[in-house]
Amino acid sequence: MLYREAGQFKTSYVADSAIFPLRQDRIGLGLIIVAAYALAFIGNSFLLQAVMIPFLVFSLASIGLNILTGYTGLLSLGTGAFMGVGAYACYKLMTAFPEVNVIVWILMSGFFSAAIGALFGLPSLRIKGFYLAVATLAAQFFLQWCFIRIPWLVNYNVSGALDAPLRTLFGTPIMGPNATPQTRYLVVLTIVILLTWLASNLVHGRIGRMWIAIRDMDLAAELMGIRPLQTKLLAFAVSSYYCGVAGALLVFLWYGGAEYDVFNINQSFFILFMVIIGGLGSLIGSFFGAALIFILPIVLGIVLPAMLSPFGISVGADVIEHLRFMIVGALIIFFLIVEPHGLARLWQIGKQKLLVWPFPY
Amino acid sequence: MSFRRIGLGLAAATMLAGMALPAFAQDSVYVPLFTYRTGPFAGSGTPIADGMHDYLRMLNERDGGIGGVKLVLEECETGYDTKKGVECYESVKGKNPVIVNPWSTGITLPLIPRASVDKIPILSMAYGLSASARGDIFPWVFNPPATYWDGLSMIIKYIGEKEGGLEKLKGKKIGFLHLDAAFGKEPIPLLQELAKDIGFEVALYPVAAQDMQNQGSQWLSARRDRPDYMIMWGWGSMNGAAVKEAVRSGYPMDKFYSVWWPGEDDARSGGAGAKGFKMLNWHAVGTNFPAIQDIQKHVVDKGFSKAQKDKVGELLYNRGIYNSLLIAEGIAQAQKVTGKKAVTGEDVRRGMENIKLDPARLKELGLEGFTDQLVLSCSDHNGHRAAFMQEWDGTKWVKISNPIEPMTDRVKGQLEAAAKDYAEKNAGWPKRTEACDKAS
Fold first, then answer.
1. What's the pLDDT tens digit per position in A10-48?
2. Which of A95, A234, B35, B115 has its CA 20 to 30 A from that of B298?
3. Between chains, do B94 and A354 touch, taking CB under 8 Å as contact?
4. Contact B113 A350 (CB under 8 A)
5. Does any CB of chain B come closer than 8 Å to the CB of residue A43?
6. Is the pTM of this model over 0.80?
7. B129 at the A interface (CB within 8 A)?
8. Is residue B77 domain-resident?
């Protein structure tokens, strides 16, 4: 009823090719952004620190992988390692040049990750599909090996761990133990919004169309004048950039310190599941995927004991953990059966139905 | 029903759930237990979780808590996963926990800088950051009763004694089988320093976390190198796999030593051939202590425990009891120092610094002879206590040595360098502002 196109006329080409042609969508997006910022002031520290910050970080990493796997059709299992490159680069940069603002280094660290990503993307010209996945798996193992074996990466720290030193922005601590969840959340939110906006412009523009052309049929794309090597490498670089920034945010603004093991193969799979569940080739799907895979278990962990206790069933933390696994697993299968194109496709269908509701004729 | 509405409802539910933290009565002390009964490390994690829980539960059932204050126990399942561990920490933080025990080095590291800000002490019992033994730099972190450097020096000392003096180790080859992570690599600098000074040779056999259960290549190299002794620094399924592989490759088990983490199940996995396997330990096994019998009477027999009856008193179960003993003692001392009943995290930090578990106190607690004495202080958060060697006789652990003192001078050097390093690398690491109690 409220959500309909009637009366909105497009009078220019710019309006016609807008990403959000509907006024309601634009208002909705604005509201979501306002609400997200407002959450910093009304949410408690658990909600911000344990739910929202990781959710945003994983969304960013999913966007990164989505650019590669969803838009360009190149399957990668090296996401965790590329995130690690970002985190280690950020650590090296900010300890070597402490006078430069850390936000600059977080955004710069992505370029290191991009370079490594492009390097490991070189085989993608020759190999495709599962074989490429195996090649990126090599990146995962090799980089992880580097994280353990090169003490220079952690400044010869005996514990072999990364830790977040105190860093400030406008005099307020945003990193290190003294930074409040609120300021960290605001920083992460702003970076994620900016980078999502950038990604949106990339995938909807010429570059994005090149990626999609390569994905849909690389031979045809080549015949149309798209150079496959450059395009694929660009996809690897941009994807790794996003993963790298996400990795830096993960270690320094969420954990506040981490071991190399954070960037293991499980992390790569974790992000890949988010992308698949959320929807390949969709930015909003990246957020949906991160929400389903990361937030749902937390909600279940809180809701399940509350639901079971009225029936006099008190269960231990381990049973809750098993139930979480089972329910999330079942839901993943359910969503994949109901809509193999991911949550983003469900969202699309929902919106189309809503356009004609309540008179579907 | 629109998706938007479902989404809105979900978001609202999330927020509500996040905000609705249960409130606790004033006269109780909230002790969260980070445990892992699921995941690849559950084999080690479950008995520890049972031991930790059962001892504190016993205090609740038998004495009504500590000093007349009930303990509110809550387990949070970490699965030995840093992500979930940090989530656990965030979820318990709002409920005023008096102490947290992460039970994973990976989870401990992110929590160390937060401890002083959130005023929640961390007890990382013989794991975590070894440098945190320095109370003057890490006032909020406790890692008794010994560091890994202490442990390694004890093993070398024991081997040296068996050979008839440390200098007899000259020309020998010592293999070091370790988990390829910060935890396993920590003793290496000390091992190499000792190798240089004494003149033995070191062969490193790193085991990556993903192939803990597949150590074929390491043991193949060991067969080629023929080290005179093998020292293991492993955790979880790595220990059991190592024992099995050692037996299979015919390595003489009486030359195979481990740090304090293997349990009975790990040794059992080697079958009859595992006889002679030795490890360090600092507390007794078995149930022959009044306090543990009270656990059986008040907790296990009443069905409050998740442990199987025959697992009570096993090595890692008792390790959990030791952990809870420290928690309980920290709370008891905090009550004594502050005169308050419902103590806070800040009080328990002071309490931990006042821990003095001497034989008389242990007898009072019903744990006479359970462990060597432990005294913590303002500057010493570790104790650097001696551990003893125990041997697997095919069915159980047998204590085979007196307590072995660590090589304090050597460990001190490592420790000071590491602590200074940590504080330097973390520019702006806060200076200790917490006052020391006179007693400590």
1. 888 888 888 888 888 889 899 999 999 999 999 888 888
2. B35
3. no
4. no
5. yes
6. yes
7. yes
8. yes
